[in-house]
Amino acid sequence: MGKITFFEEKKFQGRCYNCSSDCADLHTYFGRCNSIRVESGVWVIYERPNYKGFQYILSPGEYADNQQWMAFNDNVKSCRAVKNIYGNAWKLRLYERPDFGGQMVECSDDCSSVYDTYKLREVYSCAVTDGVWVFYDLPNYRGRQYLLERGEYRQHADWGASSPGVGSFRRITEF
Fold first, then answer.
1. CATH: 3.40.190.10, 3.60.15.10, 2.60.20.10, 2.40.50.140. Which one for 3-81?
2. For the segment 1-12, what is each residue's pLDDT rounded down to a tens digit?
3. For residues 172 and 175, which has the higher predicted lDDT (pLDDT)?
4. Cβ proximity of 90 and 131 under 8 Å
5. Is the pTM for the entire model greater than 0.70?
6. Has domain 91-172 been given CATH number 2.30.29.170?
7. How many CA atoms lie within 13 A of 100 on its CB side?
8. Which residues form the Beta/gamma crystallin 'Greek key' domain (predicted)?
9. Is the pLDDT confidence value at 109 over 90?
10. Mean pLDDT of 13-28
11. Which of 6, 23, 50, 122 is most exposed, with the fewest beta carbons within 10 Å of its own?
């Protein structure tokens, strides 16, 4: 299991909370979060309790302000450690239609622009056969983030997206 520390103020100042397990409701430990230190593991933090709302995937490192993890505000209300590690292989299938319909592309590496690389404007469904991945709604690993673990995602809402736009994606390689 990993370890993550949340700080109320920027640059690791103010009240802090050390966490080493999943937590569905962090509001009793701190009111806002403006910096984070990830000592070990990969974590998904959420803007709302019970693993809801915008999600941000953080690898080991220091995040001195919330812009460093691309947050829109200082809300962090739940977190969980990424546990499903499947070795050193990564494989992902993207589909242009729901329920695995239409054109399919198979990927095993990071992609900074889904449109430039695969000519897909939208990804409606996908299947993760190996590894853990992060989708971004904009190219160059920007915008909203979505964690995808091994499994089938029949529609974009299954990975938490409100639209089928996937601009880029990458493998999680740091555990």
1. 2.60.20.10
2. 689 999 999 999
3. 172
4. yes
5. yes
6. no
7. 9
8. 2-40, 41-83, 131-173
9. yes
10. 96
11. 50
Q: What is the reported pLDDT for 112? A: 98
What residue type is 164 in one-letter code?
P
Contacts of 127 (CB under 8 A, 6+ apart): 92, 93, 95, 100, 151, 152, 153
CA proximity to 135, closest of 67, 44, 52, 33: 44
Single-letter residue type at 150: R
Closest by Cα among 130, 110, 89 to 170: 110
Sheet holding 91-97, edge to edge: 101-107, 91-97, 125-130, 151-153
Structural domain boundaries in the chain:
3-81, 91-172
Q: Which pLDDT tens digit goes with each residue over 37-49?
A: 999 999 999 999 9
